[in-house]
């Protein structure tokens, strides 16, 4: 474990001078609340600080760097990877107060936002101009742009529009030593620097603290239409989705939920007129006159795999509820068991059917009572979110979780040529697989981490720059 | 375990996996700013208390009492955590532990001694009959098919009484065989439940239920969203089947009055504010809207955040007592929202919302649904 400095009363006083005493807390109740994200792990910070601007972040980092105090940035705390958890304590930077939309300039297709702006809030504002920021994580009602940049988040619309990195034009970042830098350009094209912007995107808060983001925004599609299907097997569902993908039609969303996840999500969303089963959602965003013929075409394609139920709609309210059900897949699985652990893997598209079938068998092979699985994800990108459902308070089930994760990544995903994270980040649970997936570059990544953050104070104990095993990290 | 025992919410708070969907429209999170001020944070605080990882203290109490119990988190929660009930149970635990806002003692005393939340003599519940010249048109404490339960704000506050006038005239117009229970009407108990002061709640519930059963009523109707939710959802938890049906007056109006012939064709846009305890928490969204569409046609416009997404106006009694700045701020925001769509009038279906929004002031007129109906029908 790196030797870190301890947060002392003198540090608290300095932090209070920087941001004001009302924005600093060492109350045990707050530290308790900030010790959690969507994972089962718990790590308490020593102090929570809520900065309001880049200058404050810079001052905080200077103090932390000098005394080698860990700093963990946090947006809305929705991570399913333990990213905002302060493994070694120290300062937790709650960035949610930095939530101003500083500029919307649709003529130049750019929005400048602070990192605490919530994804759906930004899109609500952009809609007034007929524009949007396409990446659409399931947590969009609450996740922040800062979190999305740091994870290179993507979500439901990636198949057509790509992930967050495709939209980040420019960044303001505070480095570990407090220096404020700007990367990229506020133009749509620029190759005048090394692509530092892309280096920071997906860096999980390990290289610097993002304090402003210049995002490319694009016009909303004229019209949307949705088709849904229920299949009696995941295999048929994957084959149908593959046929759509190869047809030349590019849906905005091509999403799936297995039978258990569908049941829990429909229960939450109050969807009663669609039978339960393996659910495929296909959403098109096109020119007005193109939507209906394309919907007909995808229905015809999917019908070749004999779905048990088919429906298509142009009704926005119905569509919204279907998407709401899909977006709630992870938390809705908590209806089944008291704990959930969502994983995040991607495999080559042609390997998806094989991967889906193997993943389905993990709980059965482990044979631990009370330990199960719900699977869902972005089938158009080969990205699955196998989610283990269990009771974290039961030791055997907790052990089963770590075995299941090993099987998932070591025995299924990596041998099939996949990647151990598609959009959530390495975080805590996947740190041990980085070296397996990237044996030739893990050393370079560590060197890069030390170049930006020599004292290893930024979000330590996780991520690409300092992989540790789950056992080392503990819980 | 008794009703609202904190331990009985142990599995609920365990099931909260902190997705944070509840945070997105929580009306009080932004007043607090810290994670402990979000619904997700409150569930963690409760878990901490149950698991004995946190000590009960004033800091915890402050956060738990900041909640306005609007129920947005309950509606939004994919795991199905009973958030609002967990908050009520936690408040009971805080009261039992001695950590709660002391202003609530006064409220409790008034309800205990006078059976209403103002501490007025309970026979003054009927004063509105004289004020509106309705004494000869309304029966009191007689056997009838329907009991009208106005509730404290409607019976006893000067603004609320106008809702009693319009409601009673509407019930007469329907030709119903109805009665009041008069001074035998006790505060429904909602303010005590929201306070966490549950010691006398069962007695109050039993008293009101017996009083209504004693009149052999088949139906209880109320014009108050809080009373409605108490009778429909909370009373059965304490005494089982009530033996009578519970209606909000908007449901009866929709069922029994044809208002299309009273359509208003000018006068500006009119909008509707969903009371939290009627809309999101009881699922009654459509009856008030159908009535307003019949009356105002295309002049009726929705607020940007409506139905399940409607933002709380901050009008519940407990919030008005212990967090008046939150109540006022939420009311002003609601009125701003109405102004943003050019509404001249905001209609709601709860006296607590009417009173709180009216105190917000400004050029937007605040009225109860029953007042609108009575006015267009000439029942004034």
Which shape of chain B, going by the Cα principal axes? globular
Given as residue ranges, the uncertain stretches of chain B (5+ residues, pLDDT < 50) are none
Q: What fraction of residues of chain B sit in β-strands?
A: 5-15%
CATH-defined topology of the largest domain in chain A: Uridine Diphospho-n-acetylenolpyruvylglucosamine Reductase, domain 3
Q: What is the CA-atom radius of gyration of chain B, in angstroms? A: 20 Å
Largest sheet of chain B: 5 strands, parallel
The assigned CATH architecture of the largest domain in chain B is: 3-Layer(aba) Sandwich
Low-confidence stretches of chain A: 467-475
Q: Overall pLDDT of chain B, averaged?
A: 96
Strand order across the biggest sheet of chain B?
1-3-2-4-5
Largest interface: A-B, 36 and 30 residues
State the distance separating the first and last CA atoms of chain B: 50 Å
Walk me through the structure.
The complex is a heterodimer of chains A (475) and B (380). By secondary structure, chain A is of the alpha+beta class. Chain A has four domains: 9-97 and 450-460, 2-Layer Sandwich (Uridine Diphospho-n-acetylenolpyruvylglucosamine Reductase, domain 2); 101-219, Uridine Diphospho-n-acetylenolpyruvylglucosamine Reductase, domain 3; 223-330, 2-Layer Sandwich (Alpha-Beta Plaits), CATH 3.30.70.2190; 337-424, Alpha-Beta Plaits. Helices cover 34% and strands 19% of the residues of chain A. Chain A has 18 helices and 21 strands. Chain A has helices at residues 9-19, 28-33, 54-66, 119-127, 145-151, 158-161, 196-200, 234-246, 259-269, 288-303, 316-327, 329-332, 352-360, 362-366, 395-413, 434-437, 442-452, 470-473, and strands at 24-25, 47-49, 71-74, 91-94, 101-105, 110-113, 131-132, 168-174, 180-184, 209-216, 218-219, 223-231, 253-257, 278-286, 309-313, 339-342, 345-346, 372-374, 376-378, 383-384, 387-390. Chain A has a seven-stranded antiparallel sheet with strand order 15-12-14-13-19-20-17, with helices on both faces. A five-stranded antiparallel sheet of chain A has the order 5-6-10-8-9. A four-stranded mixed sheet of chain A has the order 1-2-4-3. In chain A, strand 8 (168-174) and strand 9 (180-184) form a beta hairpin. The longest helix of chain A has 19 residues, at 395-413. The two termini of chain A are 15 Å apart. Chain B has 380 residues and is of the alpha/beta class. Chain B has three domains: 6-97, Orthogonal Bundle (Fumarate Reductase Iron-sulfur Protein, Chain B, domain 2); 103-254, Rossmann fold, CATH 3.40.50.1860; 259-376, 3-Layer(aba) Sandwich (Rossmann fold), CATH 3.40.50.1860. In chain B, the strands form two sheets. A five-stranded parallel sheet of chain B has the order 1-3-2-4-5. Chain B has a three-stranded parallel sheet with strand order 6-7-8, with helices on both faces. The relative contact order of chain B is 0.12. The mean pLDDT of chain B is 96. The A-B interface holds A 25, 27-30, 32-34, 36-38, 48, 50, 76-78, 94, 96-97, 118, 120, 139, 141-142, 265, 268, 328, 330-332, 334-335, 338-340, 393 and B 11, 14-21, 23-24, 33-36, 41, 44-45, 48, 53-55, 57, 59-60, 63, 77-80.
């Amino acid at each position: 474990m790196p030797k870190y400095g301890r947060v002392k009363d003198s540090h608290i006083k300095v932090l209070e001078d920087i941001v004001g005493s009302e924005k600093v807390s060492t109350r045990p109740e707050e530290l308790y609340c900030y010790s959690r994200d969507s994972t089962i792990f718990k790590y308490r910070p020593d102090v929570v600080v809520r900065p309001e601007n880049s200058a404050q972040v810079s001052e905080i980092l200077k103090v932390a760097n000098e005394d080698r105090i860990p700093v963990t940035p946090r947006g809305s705390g929705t991570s399913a990877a333990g990213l905002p958890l302060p493994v070694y304590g120290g300062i937790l930077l709650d960035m949610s107060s930095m939530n101003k939309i500083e500029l919307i300039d649709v003529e130049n297709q750019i929005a400048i936002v602070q990192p605490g702006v919530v994804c759906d809030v930004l899109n609500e504002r952009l809609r007034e101009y007929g524009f949007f920021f396409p990446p659409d994580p399931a947590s969009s009602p609450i996740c922040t742009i800062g979190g999305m940049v740091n994870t290179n988040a993507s979500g439901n619309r990636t198949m057509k529009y790509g992930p967050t990195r495709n939209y980040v034009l420019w960044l303001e970042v505070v480095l570990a030593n407090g220096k404020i830098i700007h990367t990229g350009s506020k133009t749509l094209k620029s190759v005048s620097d090394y692509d530092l912007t892309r280096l920071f995107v997906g860096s999980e808060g390990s290289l610097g603290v993002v304090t402003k983001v210049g995002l490319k925004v694009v016009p909303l599609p004229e019209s949307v239409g949705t088709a849904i299907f229920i299949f009696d097997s995941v295999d048929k569902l994957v084959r149908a989705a593959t046929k759509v993908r190869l047809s030349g039609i590019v849906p905005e969303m091509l999403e799936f939920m297995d039978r258990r996840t569908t049941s829990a999500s429909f229960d939450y969303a109050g969807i009663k007129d669609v039978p339960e089963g393996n659910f495929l959602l296909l959403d098109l965003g096109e020119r007005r006159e193109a939507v209906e013929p394309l919907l007909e075409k995808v229905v015809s394609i999917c019908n070749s795999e004999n779905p048990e139920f088919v429906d298509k709609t142009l009704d926005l309210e119905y569509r919204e509820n279907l998407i709401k059900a899909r977006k709630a897949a992870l938390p809705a699985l908590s209806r089944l068991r008291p704990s959930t652990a969502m994983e995040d893997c991607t495999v080559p598209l042609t390997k998806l059917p094989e991967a889906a079938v193997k993943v389905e068998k993990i709980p059965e092979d482990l044979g631990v009572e009370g330990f199960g699985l719900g699977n869902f994800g972005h089938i158009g990108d080969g990205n699955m979110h196998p989610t283990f459902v269990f009771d974290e308070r039961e030791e055997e089930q907790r052990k089963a979780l770590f075995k299941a994760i090993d099987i998932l990544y070591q025995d299924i995903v990596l041998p099939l040529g996949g990647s151990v994270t598609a959009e959530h980040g390495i975080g805590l649970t996947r740190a041990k697989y980085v070296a397996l997936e990237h044996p030739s570059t893990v050393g370079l990544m560590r060197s890069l981490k030390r170049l930006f953050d020599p004292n290893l104070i930024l979000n330590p104990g996780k991520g690409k720059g300092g992989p540790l095993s789950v056992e080392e990290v503990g819980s | 375990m008794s009703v609202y025992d904190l331990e009985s919410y142990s599995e609920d708070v365990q099931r909260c996996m902190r997705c944070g969907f509840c945070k997105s429209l929580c009306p009080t999170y932004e007043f607090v700013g810290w994670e402990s001020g979000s619904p997700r944070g409150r569930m963690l605080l409760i878990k901490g208390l149950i698991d004995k990882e946190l000590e009960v203290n004033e800091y915890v109490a402050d956060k738990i009492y900041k909640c306005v119990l609007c129920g947005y988190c309950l509606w939004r929660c994919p795991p199905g955590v009973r958030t609002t009930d967990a908050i009520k149970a936690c408040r009971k635990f805080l009261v039992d532990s001695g950590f709660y806002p002391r202003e609530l003692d006064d409220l409790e005393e008034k309800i205990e001694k006078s059976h209403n939340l103002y501490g007025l003599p309970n026979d003054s519940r009927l004063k509105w009959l004289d004020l509106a010249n309705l004494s000869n048109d309304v029966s009191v404490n007689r056997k009838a098919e329907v009991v009208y339960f106005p509730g404290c704000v409607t019976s006893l506050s000067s603004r609320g009484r106008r809702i009693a006038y319009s409601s009673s005239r509407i019930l007469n117009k329907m030709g119903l065989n109805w009665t009041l229970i008069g001074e035998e009407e006790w505060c429904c108990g909602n303010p005590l439940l929201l306070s966490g002061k549950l010691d006398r709640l069962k007695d109050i519930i039993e008293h009101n239920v017996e009083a209504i059963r004693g009149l052999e009523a088949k139906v209880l109707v109320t014009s108050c969203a809080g009373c409605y939710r108490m009778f429909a959802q909370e009373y059965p938890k304490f005494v089982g089947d009530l033996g009578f049906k519970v209606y909000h007056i908007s449901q009866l109006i929709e069922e029994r009055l044809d208002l299309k012939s009273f359509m208003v064709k000018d006068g500006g846009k009119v909008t509707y504010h969903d009371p939290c305890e009627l809309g999101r928490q009881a699922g009654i969204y459509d009856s008030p809207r159908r009535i307003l569409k019949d009356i105002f046609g295309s002049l009726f416009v929705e607020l940007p955040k409506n139905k399940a997404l409607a933002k709380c106006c901050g009008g519940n009694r407990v919030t008005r007592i212990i967090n008046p700045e939150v109540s006022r701020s939420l009311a002003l925001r609601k009125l701003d929202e109405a102004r943003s769509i050019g509404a001249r009038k905001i209609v709601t279906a709860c006296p607590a919302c009417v009173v709180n929004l009216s105190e917000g002031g400004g050029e937007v007129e605040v009225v109860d649904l029953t007042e609108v109906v009575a006015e267009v029908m000439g029942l004034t």
